[in-house]
Structures are given as structure tokens and as C-alpha cells.
Amino acid sequence: MDRPQRKSIRLRGYDYTRCGAYYITICTHDRAHVFGRIADAAMHLSTLGDIVDECWHAIPTHFPHAIIDTFVIMPNHVHGVVVITDPGGAVAGARDLAPANVMPPGPGMDPIPVLDYDAMMIPTTPDDGPPTRTRPRIIPGSLGAIVQGFKAGVTRQARRRGVPVPSTIWQRNYYEHIVRDPMDHDRITRYIADNPANWERDRFR
């Protein structure tokens, strides 16, 4: 049987280039454990995991309107908070931007469930293919563009350095959650920080 279509939590008409804080989770293809291993409640990065770390910290270099916040690399996925700032205005932190980030649900809008991962997967254009009818063009400067650039950068650097990697490193989709307010931000950052210690109970394992 075909799997039922999952409903996106994205607000209808929401602009993902908008100033705000976004919590993202990106998984490896087939959830392969290629970024390292967990030992004694700590993450020990592989060579590919080191490249992932480098590319995450390089995001602001390629996207000057983006700030990287809390981040963790796990054996088969990464969690992180990205803050999109106003390119022509002041730069603020995630806790400052979060309260203004999300409009309350109104007519024609869906409420945002809290970390409902089954509903949070949204498509992004693959690193090595042009947009098609089922792969929409990524809007420059948007959250999707940042994720796409990060994923492509990891793949490109791994191949350039001759690191043995699968033919496809990343799962095509990624999960996103619009950070609602400082309380939501604090809860997310605690979850990210505690992820290695909670590996045995991790739903992405």
C-alpha cells in the first residue's frame, strides 16, 4: 500500500526568507551512520563528520544574513538552529528574533505542532539535479537555500578530499520547525545539547 501523504506544517503563504529562528534536522540517506559514533554519551566525529562541522560553521560565510545557533552532529543526522536576519537591518540573536518569527494561526492557516517530526518533513531540491515539477526551485536566501547549500557543501568537500562516502550522503528531505518564542528556543537548545546523552532513545537512531 502507498504510504499516506503527510501534511506539511508550513504556514500557507509563509515566507521562509523571513527574519526569524528555525530549528532544522537533516538526516543521512537511509539513516546510515557515517558521521561518527556515540561513546560514553559523547559524539566522536568521523572524517565526514568533521567536514559536516566545518560546513555548518561556514554557513554565515556563504549566507551573510544567516546566524548559526546551537548545533549537534549525530551518527546519522544533524540538529541545528539557523537564524535568518534582516540583510539590511540590525543583527539579533535567536532568542531576540523568535518572538516575532511566527504569526498566530488565523483563517486558512494551520497551527504548528511542537516537534511533530512525522508532519515536519518538507521537500528540498536535491544537490545534483535541476528543479522539476516535483522538485520546486529553491528561493535564494530562504531556509531551503541555506539547507541546500549546506548539504551540497558537505558532499562537494567530501568528494574533493577523497573521503570515502556513500554515493548519496543526505536524505532528500529535511525537517523544520519555526521557533515560536524564547521558551521554545530554550527547550530546543536543551534538546540539542542533550542529544548525544539520549542517543539510545533517539527516534532517528
What can be said about this structure in brief?
It is built from 6 helices and 7 strands, in the order βββααββααβαβα. The protein is an alpha+beta fold and 205 residues long. The strands form 2 sheets. A 5-stranded antiparallel beta sheet has the order 4-5-1-7-6. Strands 2-3 form a two-stranded antiparallel ribbon.
Quaternary structure type: single chain
The biggest sheet, with number of strands, parallel, antiparallel or mixed sense and barrel status, is: 5 strands, antiparallel
- How far apart lie the N and C ends? 25 Å
Number of structural units classed as domains: 1
Described by the principal axes of the CA atoms, the overall outline is globular
Rg is 17 Å
CATH-scheme architecture: 2-Layer Sandwich
Low-confidence blocks of residues: 1-11, 89-134
Describe the overall structure.
The chain has 205 residues and is of the alpha+beta class. The chain has one domain: 2-Layer Sandwich (Alpha-Beta Plaits), CATH 3.30.70.1290. Helices cover 26% and strands 19% of the residues. It is built from six helices and seven strands, in the order E-E-E-H-H-E-E-H-H-E-H-E-H. The protein has helices spanning 47-57, 59-62, 94-97, 117-120, 143-160, 182-194; strands at 20-27, 36-39, 42-45, 66-73, 77-84, 121-122, 174-178. It is globular. The model is unreliable at 1-11 and 89-134 (pLDDT under 50).
